Amino acid sequence: MSNDLCEELVVEIFTRLPPKTLLRFRSVSKALYARISSPDFIRLHTLRFRSPKKFIIIHKHKLKDNEANYKSMLYTIHSERQISSYAGITPLTYPFYTSSLIVGSCNGIICVYDPSLQRGDAIYLWNPTIKRQYKVLHLPSCRPCFTHGFGFDPVVQDYKIVRIGITHTFVYTLKTATWRTIAPPMTRPCYVNQSKCIFNGALHWVVRAFRGYEYILRFDLSSEVFSTIELCEPSWKNKEVTIVKGCLAVLSKNDDDDWYIWVRNNDTVSWSLAFKLNSPERLTFGDVPFVYYYYPEIIITLSHEPQARSRLVHLTDTSRIACMAACIESLELLDMGTSCDQITGTKIKREAEESDIMQK
Fold first, then answer.
1. Which of 107, 118, 252, 337 is most solvent-facing, going by the fewest CB within 10 Å?
2. Taking Cα atoms as reference points, which of 191, 183, 173, 168 lies closest to residue 238?
3. Which phi and psi (to 5°) does residue 342 adopt?
4. Which residues share a beta bridge with 60?
5. Mean of the pLDDT values across residues 243-266?
6. C-alpha to C-alpha distance for 196 and 111, rounded to whole angstroms
7. How many CA atoms lie within 13 A of 237 on its CB side?
8. Residue 351, Cα to own-chain centre: how many angstroms?
9. CA angle at residue 15 from 295 to 103, to 5 degrees?
């Protein structure tokens, strides 16, 4: 009985420790290494450990003020308190090509899509906390591909990736490492906004149909069935879908360049206006505020002031935010994949070679 109690206490304590601490503990003994690396412990740690939310921001950066295109990227990781002040932030080593896009984030795993035609498109799962990545193999042909989604199915306890194309739709499950064809959306989209969120076990996107009106496309991660949700103002420019105070929310822009945040009531399934924002003149048509909610306020990042930019080396007035993703610290992917340290050098070398080829 005493041994069982001691065992339970060890698990209770360890599942509440930070991931980086547990990584160091693995070197203590073979028994601890096996315990911490086991899938059951990793899942239990994800459920119990209260990780502070962090934000990974990708900045596009011009090497010269007069350049038309952005030539390089800067990657940073922030806590919630650092999101607006840029105080004490940490530069982040990004182990993928700069052409890659962040699909989504779930339980500390970030899904990354590289659409390169030269290398062939690829999908990776990445845990920046423990610096591990997992390459998803055998991507089914899907060109043109509207979008991808990533999330966790709580019913089967598995991570899934959905790949939506113009004629076919596929789902990948991490446990089986296989792709399956599923029924596509009933209404074929013309354009899918890359911004998405997970709400009540389903992925949500803002979608534009061929006739021009917009709606929300919903994909249930458990049933793997698509459905639609009508928008409050479908004729407006609906840019972002997010979560505000536990409710689905949409950021919309009207013809007067005013921004509105609409919140959907979970009981009455009706929309109500939560916030109205007057856009600054410097906000261009293509720029979209990034909206993240955390108690007790909403963080809305339109652009960073020069004083904030100056706190980061290489971040100047010629930079702009390209992407922002929220993430937590976890041990997910510890029992699979590859260390990012093994591939970063190879990636940098290949990217430099491709850049030389493009310039010739």
1. 118
2. 191
3. -80, -20
4. 73, 320
5. 82
6. 13
7. 12
8. 23
9. 55
Contact 252, 239 (CB under 8 A): yes
Integer Cα distance of 203 and 187 in angstroms: 16
Q: Give pTM, 2 decimals.
A: 0.81
Per-residue pLDDT averaged across 88-112, rounded? 85
Contacts of 163 (CB under 8 A, 6+ apart): 139, 140, 142, 145, 148, 169, 170, 171, 172, 179
> What is the spatial distance between Cα 103 and Cα 193, in angstroms, rounded to a whole number?
11
pLDDT (tens digit per residue) in 196-244: 899 999 999 988 877 777 889 999 999 999 999 988 876 677 667 888 8
Q: Among 44, 80, 39, which residue's Cα sits nearest to residue 328?
A: 80
CA-to-CA distance for 57 and 78, rounded, in angstroms?
Answer: 8
Specify whether the CB–CB gap between 353 and 103 falls below 8 A: no
Name 279's Cβ contacts closer than 8 Å, sequence gap at least 6. Answer: 253, 257, 258, 259, 302
Buried b (16+ CB within 10 A) or exposed e, 161-171: bbbbbeeebbb
Q: What is the spatial distance between Cα 42 and Cα 333, in angstroms, rounded to a whole number?
A: 9
Write the pLDDT tens digit of every residue in 112-167. Answer: 999 876 677 899 999 999 999 999 999 998 777 778 999 999 999 999 999 998 88
Which tokens belong to 49?
């450990």
Tokens of 339: 């260390």
Matching residue, tokens 């856009």? 279
CA atoms within 13 A on the CB side of 46: 23
Where do the structural domains in the chain lie, given as residue ranges?
2-46
Cis peptide before 280 (omega within 30 of 0): no
Q: What is the DSSP string of 99-132?
A: T-EEEEEETTEEEEEE--TTT--EEEEEETTTTE
Q: CA nearest 289: which of 266, 245, 257?
A: 257
Q: What is the dihedral of CA 267, 164, 58, 322, to 10 degrees?
A: -80
What gap in Å lies between CA 289 and CA 259, rounded to an integer? 9
- Output the DSSP codes for 86-103: --S-EE----S-TT-EEE
Query: How far apart, in whole angstroms, are the C-alpha atoms of residue 108 and residue 357?
Result: 36
